[in-house]
């Protein structure tokens, strides 16, 4: 392995998923190792020059966010992608603030994992407000019901008049 080669480390408590992702990376010509938890990952990082880490968010003992901090404390040059089946805006923000370069939700392909490491943001990604998310959801439901407010309100499980009031309040960033 050359000094500038990528060495992947897959950290996931799901044995089957971890083995499959590691094998898929190897089949695509990458060097890859795996660990079942953060403690094992730290040992591997001490023994090998790991450059890229795929880190599961939900793990027993040490969760992915704590593990992210621990791994970056060990080697600040690590590129870490958080991978989870339980994605949320809050955990995405927390992971990025702690130093993850990307955040993916399962299921995802090996190609998506590889591309997540190659992604270079052009600017700071702005996370939408709750009002914006609600507005977009209402608009999708309205479109689905072809603008019929009564049917859309039933689908949203709110009163028709409540939906009409919400539609009158356009989020600030859309004005």
Describe this structure in words.
This protein has eight helices and five strands; from the N terminus they run E-H-E-H-E-H-E-H-E-H-H-H-H. It has 175 residues and is of the alpha/beta class. It has a five-stranded parallel β-sheet with strand order 2-1-3-4-5, with helices on both faces. Helix 7 (149-156) packs across helix 8. It is elongated. The model has no long low-confidence stretch (mean pLDDT 84).
Give a quick precis of the structure.
The chain is built from eight helices and five strands, in the order βαβαβαβαβαααα. With 175 residues, the chain is α/β, with parallel strands linked by helices.
Judging from the principal axes of the Cα atoms, what is the shape?
Answer: elongated
Helix content: 40-55%
Per DSSP, the total helix count is 8
Radius of gyration: 21 Å
Q: What is the averaged pLDDT score?
A: 84
Low-pLDDT segments, ≥5 res: none
Largest pleated sheet: 5 strands, parallel
Spatial arrangement of strands, main beta sheet? 2-1-3-4-5
Order of helices and strands: EHEHEHEHEHHHH
Number of strands: 5
How large is the share of residues in beta strands? 5-15%
Structural class: alpha/beta
- From the N-terminal CA to the C-terminal CA, the straight-line distance is 55 Å
Features:
175 residues, elongated
Outline the secondary-structure elements:
Layout: E1 7-11, H1 15-27, E2 31-35, H2 38-47, E3 52-56, H3 64-74, E4 79-84, H4 89-98, E5 102-105, H5 110-118, H6 130-144, H7 149-156, H8 160-168
Parallel strand pairs: 1-2, 1-3, 3-4, 4-5
Helix pairs in contact: 2-3, 6-7, 7-8
């Amino acid at each position: 392995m050359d000094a500038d080669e990528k060495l992947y480390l897959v950290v996931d408590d799901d044995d089957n998923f971890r083995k499959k992702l590691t094998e898929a990376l190897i089949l695509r010509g990458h060097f890859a190792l795996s660990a079942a938890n953060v403690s094992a990952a730290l040992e591997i990082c001490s023994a090998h020059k790991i450059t890229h880490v795929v880190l599961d968010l939900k793990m027993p003992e040490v969760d992915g966010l704590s593990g992210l901090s621990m791994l970056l404390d060990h080697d600040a040059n690590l590129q870490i992608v958080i991978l989870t089946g339980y994605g949320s805006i809050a955990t995405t923000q927390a992971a990025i603030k702690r130093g993850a370069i990307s955040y993916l939700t399962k299921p995802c392909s090996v190609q998506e994992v590889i591309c997540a490491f190659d992604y270079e943001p052009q600017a700071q990604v702005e996370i939408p407000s709750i009002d914006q998310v609600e507005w977009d959801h209402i608009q999708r439901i309205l479109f689905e019901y072809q603008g019929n407010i009564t049917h859309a309100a039933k689908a949203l499980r709110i009163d028709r008049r409540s939906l009409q009031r919400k539609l009158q309040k356009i989020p600030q960033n859309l004005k």
